[in-house]
Amino acid sequence: MSKRSLLLTFTFSLFTLLAFAQNVTVEGHADTYKGKTIAAYSYQDLITNTPIMITSAKVNDTGYFTLSIPNIKESQYMYLNIENFNGSIYVSPGKSYHIVFPPPDSTQYLNPFVTHPIDLVFQNASATDINSMVIDFNEQWDLFWRKYYTYFVRKEATAVLDSFQLTMQQRYVDVKDPYFIGYVNYTIAEIEINILVGQKTLANKYFKNKPVLYHNYEYMKFFNDYFKDYMEQFAIERAKEGDEVNKTISGNDYNGLMEVMKVNPILRNSDSLCELVLLKGLNELYYTGDFDKENIKTILKNISVNSKIDEDKLIAKNILNSFIETGGGEAAPEFTLKDSQGELTSLIDFRGKYLYICFFKSSISASVGEMDVMSALRRQYGKKINFMCISEDDNMEDMQHFLDQNKIYTWPFLFDKNHEVLKLYNVKSTPEFFLIGPKGKFFRSPADPPSHGIQETFDQIAPQKNK
């Protein structure tokens, strides 16, 4: 190959790589949240909805912030979080977004311990920006609903909804973004489920000979609703044929289970769809009590290692991790560390109550951003739940300096010299959270962070009398 040909090949390969993985910038103002942390989140998968923080930054003293989101290959859904407020955003490779993160709606009571959605304001967005198109579609739907809602009340909406879908396809005929096309189709599909369009009709329209859109939020919402409790009902039906589902699960027979499921023609023609339905089903069957949990785990471990689909491997791993979180729990590793006063404190000192632990580093803004919410949660639940922070700072002085600047944080802060406890708990990044039960066993491992749902768990284990 000549040098010129080699250079052209390299240039083309580099161009292709850059075209499929580009950075995204999100900047704007959040004037109500000066000094707070804003973070961009995605989901590891849309079966377990395991959140993953992509990046974070601090809102400065003027209310300005900027986030750089790396390696975006295609349009996708994300959400921006400040404290307990989440705002949805769709990002496309190489794009920049200018937004306003608005203050909470003062006309509504907003529980500070529950996560609330908030509508981001997009500034200078073109009509072809995916967020603009999503807003436009939602406005079209609102107009349609106001005009035809009586058809829905009379359960005669199928024909007018088909007409609306055709109108939207014509309205966006020049749009090439696959994500937005999916957004329109599967948002309407979700409406069709709610008006009880036949299961076979929906399957032929939206699943037959269609790709599985693992990363399309609207597709996966429709998928999860369509196949809700599918495996449980399927197992009941197949029991009449000799209890095939139970036999294959009891035998840890992944291949046999897939074959049994393929009596459904929609699943027969797509291994990827069939395996995804199986994953969702195993996750649900685990909690019914009708199947051996260890056998379900064995099949999931098989999928997590041997599946030909990377997304399914990750989903299987996340489902297994969720079982660890909500199961009886293993004993949390014991430790003894010095607190901010130099006194030795041990895990066993907290037996008898639930213990919520935060591993943090004071130089990481996302860690600090969770502290205010944690402080509010402690005021709400502190009589029944203990709180603890374990510092992964480089030295005790850094932790002490942080506490000197934040005297409102009055729960125990321990210093993890040489990061020994971090290794014991297999902490991959900070902040990371764990909830330990009164007998010293993991109750959630890892646990949701303060700003992302742990209050729901707290309500279960320490219900409030005034609710």
Q: Can you put this structure into words, describing what you see?
A:
With 467 residues, the protein is α+β, with helices and mostly antiparallel strands. The chain has 4 domains: 21-124, Immunoglobulin-like; 133-226; 230-326, no CATH class; 336-461, Glutaredoxin. 44% of the residues lie in helices and 19% in strands. The protein contains 17 helices and 16 strands. It has helices at residues 3-20, 130-153, 158-171, 178-194, 199-206, 217-226, 230-239, 244-250, 254-261, 265-268, 271-285, 293-306, 310-326, 365-381, 396-405, 420-424, 454-461, and strands at residues 22-29, 37-43, 51-58, 64-72, 76-82, 85-91, 96-100, 116-117, 121-123, 336-339, 344-346, 354-360, 385-391, 413-415, 432-436, 442-444. The strands form 3 sheets. Strands 11-10-14-13-12-15-16 form a 7-stranded mixed sheet. A 5-stranded mixed sheet has the order 3-2-5-6-8. It has a 4-stranded mixed sheet with strand order 4-1-7-9. Strand 5 and strand 6 (85-91) form a beta hairpin. Helix 2 (130-153) packs antiparallel against helix 3 (158-171) and helix 8 runs antiparallel to helix 9 (254-261). The N and C termini lie far apart (74 Å). The model is unreliable at 1-19 (pLDDT under 50).
